[in-house]
Each structure stands twice: as structure tokens, then as C-alpha cells.
Design goal:
It is a single chain. This protein is α+β, with helices and mostly antiparallel strands. The protein has one domain: Porin (Beta Barrel), CATH 2.40.160.20. A hairpin with a 6-residue loop joins β3 and β4.
Length: 255
């Protein structure tokens, strides 16, 4: 490693450093508020099922029931400790109901932000410690990683139960699995093993809930929230948007 003017210059061939940094990264974990919210949401989901799904046999759930029948566009706000609050843009695809009251909605979401300064500071401290343990000499004042940009492309597959509730509204709640394609970049880390550490493909899962209101027969306004659990990056997302349906409705779906 060589440093000039307080900025870090690191080569990709520092495989030992990369392994050390991966060990360093393991210090991150869920904050207490993420844990409490996730447990509370899970309890609610496990204790409830749509009235129409009670006493239904497993045979009632069939992939033949699925078809591309609608699309949703949403904008949201992401909140986490690791990056600055970010705006999310998403699109979801309504594949209809796998079984009584159980809807399948795959989707894609994108967000971009910058790593929180507290997170950068801790990263720099651990990088300095790692450099010293390997016999190196860090620059005067420690490493300066500058601004680190983060972005994520998320591909999700959600399953949710849908209830009809008063005031002509629908309530949905469910779980989902996701693939995250995270990217990290910055003037001081581009082309280094630090960038390699921040570029990753990871699996996650989510708990989510939403309210939908039909503003027209085939157009719905909706808003909801999601808890996403992804290794060292776990967050809340609040989102809202419009859904457009052109496929067939199921019994009881038209209000």
C-alpha cells in the first residue's frame, strides 16, 4: 500500500488484506430496532390468515393459477444506519393468486446513496489497524477514504395474503426473498480491494405490509412498508405508488 497526501492507494493484488477486511466486515449486525420490528411483524403474519383461506387444502394452491395480470410503480424512502437515507424506485408485477387469498408479486427496486460518515470513519480505523498488523505504515492522520457511494439493484419474489377490509380497502402482508447486487465506489477506493469488498451479490429476505385503495376499477393507490434483512445492510423502507390491473379479478376482489 502507498499513500499520498492522506489518500489511500491500494492494489488489487493485496489478497491478504482483502481477507483481513472481510473479517473486519463481520462486526456489523442488526440494530435493536430492526430486530424488534422484524419479530413483531413475523408474529403478526404467523397469527393471521385471510378468511377465505381458512380450511383450504394444499391442492387449492396451483402455479397454473398464475398469469401476468398487472403492474405497479412505486417511490419509497429507505432508512438504515449504514448509508444515508435514500429514495427507492421500484416496479412490481402482479402474477395473480397462487391459491385462496395468496398473491405472488415479483419486482425490481433500485436505490443509490452514500455510506454514512460514521460507517466510513470506522472503516478507516479498521483499515489503519489492519495495515499496522501487517507491518505497514499508515499515512499521517490515518487513511482518508473520502466519500463512498453505495447503490443496490434488488430483484424480489414476494408472496402475500390479501384481505378485504372496511372503507373499500385491501390489506396485504407477507414475506419475500431477494437478490441484492450491491455496488460501492469512490475516488479513493476505485480499482482497489476495498471496492471489491463493497461490490457483492447477496441474498436477503423481507417482511412487508401494505394498504390498497381502488381509485378506479383497475387502478389502485397503495402505500406500505418493508423490513429488509441483508447481512450487514438491514433497513426499513416506506413506499407508495399506483397499481394497474388488466387481468381477470378473483371472486370478491371487485369493491
Amino acid at each position: 500500500m502507498l499513500a499520498t497526501g492522506g489518500e489511500v492507494r491500494m492494489t488489487k493484488c493485496a489478497s491478504g488484506s482483502a481477507r483481513g477486511m472481510r473479517r473486519v466486515e463481520k462486526w456489523r449486525h442488526l440494530t435493536w430496532r430492526h430486530s424488534v420490528a422484524a419479530v413483531a411483524t413475523a408474529v403478526v403474519l404467523m397469527s393471521a390468515s385471510p378468511r377465505g383461506a381458512v380450511a383450504q387444502d394444499f391442492i387449492d394452491y396451483d402455479y397454473a393459477n398464475l398469469s401476468f395480470r398487472g403492474i405497479s410503480f412505486d417511490v419509497g424512502q429507505l432508512n438504515t444506519d449504514n448509508v444515508e437515507d435514500a429514495t427507492t424506485l421500484g416496479v412490481r408485477f402482479d402474477l395473480g393468486y397462487l391459491g385462496p387469498g395468496f398473491r405472488i408479486t415479483p419486482g425490481v427496486t433500485y436505490w443509490e446513496s452514500t455510506m454514512a460518515q460514521a460507517e466510513v470513519d470506522q472503516f478507516e480505523t479498521r483499515l489503519t489497524e489492519l495495515n499496522q498488523t501487517q507491518g505497514g505504515t499508515p499515512p499521517l492522520g490515518g487513511f482518508d477514504l473520502g466519500v463512498i457511494d453505495r447503490s443496490d439493484v434488488i430483484v424480489t419474489l414476494d408472496g402475500e395474503y390479501v384481505w378485504t377490509i372496511p372503507f373499500d380497502m385491501y390489506f396485504s402482508a407477507g414475506e419475500g426473498v431477494s437478490a441484492h447486487f450491491l455496488n460501492g465506489s469512490g475516488a479513493a477506493i476505485d480499482g482497489t480491494f476495498v471496492e471489491d469488498l463493497l461490490d457483492s451479490a447477496s441474498a436477503g429476505f423481507n417482511l412487508h405490509a401494505a394498504l390498497e385503495y381502488p381509485i378506479a376499477e383497475r387502478v389502485r393507490l397503495y402505500g406500505g412498508s418493508k423490513i429488509e434483512v441483508l447481512g450487514d445492510l438491514n433497513y426499513f423502507e416506506f413506499r407508495g405508488g399506483l397499481s394497474f390491473i388488466w387481468g381477470e379479478f378473483v371472486e370478491g376482489e371487485i369493491r
